[in-house]
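If you are new to this repository, start here. Below is one unmodified record pulled from the training split, so you can see the exact layout before writing a loader.
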Amino acid sequence: MLNRFGCTALAALFVLGACAHEAKTPLAETQATTETYSVRLFDKTLGQLVATTEGDTVKVAYEYRNNGRGPTLAETIKLGADGLPVSWTIDGATTFGNEIHEKFALEGGVASWTDTTGSSTAAMTEPTIYVPQNASPYTLAVYAKALLMDDDRALPAWPAGSLSMLPLDTVRLDGAGGPVEAFAYALIGNDTDPTYFLIDGEGDLVALMSPRFVIVREGYEAADDQLQEMATRLSSQRLETIQAETAHRYDAPLAITNVRLFDPKAKAMTALSTVIVEKGLIKSVAAGKADTRGAYVVDGQGGSLIPGLAEMHGHMGEDGALKNIAAGVTLMRDMGNDNAVLSELITKIEAGKLAGPRVVRLGFIEGKSPFNSNNGILVSSEAEAVAAVDWYADQGTYPQIKIYNSITPAWVPAMVARAKARGLRVSGHIPAFTNADAMIEAGYDEITHINQLMLGWVLAPEEDTRTLLRLTALQRLPNVDLDRDQVKRTLDLMAQKGVAIDPTFAIHEALLLSRNGELQAGMADYVANMPVAVQRQAKEAWSAIGSPEEDAAYKGAFDQMTGTIRRMKDRGIFILFGTDLGGALTLHRELELYQKAGFTPPEILARATFEAADYMGLGSELGSIEPGKKADFFLVPGNPVEDLKAIKTIRLVSKGDTVYFPSEIYPHFGIKPFTDIPVVAPPATE
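And here is the target side for that same chain:
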């Protein structure tokens, strides 16, 4: 999903006029013109954006597919003489199938719009631009031209917030249409992150760019790497600035006093204690007061110090890395990524240039097919699949591989055998045209996603889970008796063979329970602090709900997942807590959900800290607050053993030798802080 957009620009670069939305001569009738853009991901074209302009009206068609899914949108935008939209209709479907029927109109000085949150109106008291809830990236072209016609290159926005354009750089692109001099901007507005894009000297869109995903004018696809590198540089510069402003390193030990510690081995809180950190390690933990002379001191005010959380199903990017730190997530297991991009990000984090969790990375292996994902290594034969296992083993930085949807099931035994021979664990989706039982028998150590396991109880052998069927078929789950022999066999196999599972509970809550116009339960505790775009997303369904029967079936499917996880816990199956949603605040919801499956808050905290670290072979250095371990922990005012929601209000995060105050970080992302910043008293000599 793209950010909502906004920007600030230099009119002198463009022949677009300098007056602030004065009335202009109506747009002349002109012959229709068409602009075509290629959607690029991992050096492949996966779809197109086509914009046809005739007079004051633009019609847009946008579609791409990655991993068997993607958005399909059709837009009609009518522009006023001042470049601002006066009507905008959007129809289509989101990545996971939710239908979109969004409308905006400006008539007689009154704006009206309808999206998934409902219908609203507002009087136009000054030039204001509408920001759609779901639209194609062509919105960048609309925003750029409108903002460039405004004196301060900024506009208030409907339904709330504002948009502005920040000029960043110039670049030359070479392609079939000849060289293009383009101007790079950050679009800043009502979402948490900027969007980077290029326009030419006429103000026309040239490209949208991110470190992985690029949409570029047709004929200029060869600039893909150039654009990704530029986006990476611009994003890194922004985040390095935030790191410089919010990362605190002290020239003497740091003492946290008057706090109770969560002990994940005892699954209990300690008495009030003092923790002293020196050079990134925990030097001492003492009950009651301790000698803090020569140390910086933070009074914990009777709050709780919790070991850093582990996000066990991440796909980390730069922006998300910092947000995870702010949420107390100091360890992340990356389940599949662009290997080179992730390596560069890890290097920057380890060097202290960027903030982010410690990363354990999995080796992603996917089969080539019309539905394949484009992470990691793509293979087209058993020999290539086994060679991919060897490549990951040779790097020495991948303790585990992850097998994905389009791998041919017959290749899996050879892949598992080679992985085990090379000392790697094996996890994965259940590839299409097989089931969990077969993959467990083939040697999986871990299964990824609860739906992947449960689909084996409702699908026919020929049904293809590389498409959205792996979501829509969940409607069949309410008909499954969770105590029948087929279910018991799968769960008993897991228990007997020590197979773990990474259910990604929170993403299934969003997929199955979110409804248009209703606030998602998982976002209720923090949504009021978020920018308006996130608030709108919080009332948007993920899946297409076509009837009351489908509504009931999806709700029943979530109940069945909860019942299955409870049965897994009862059998002693090791359950890992990860979101596949980016972690950060969504990990807090992931942990909270496991209470529905019978976990107590102390059990959840233990699993999310020491037990997760120990599962990844890091228990001797991470996961608990003990002398000699790395100083990865966070401070909250409340007691999460009594009420797990207490982990959502974080005053301080320590990761090794660096301390962060989330309330300093969040304003950089348009997020209202959740709590105060603790006072850090300088060292005392007496």
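Two things worth knowing about this chain: Confidence is low (pLDDT under 50) at residues 1-28. The CA atoms of residues 214 and 224 lie 7 Å apart.
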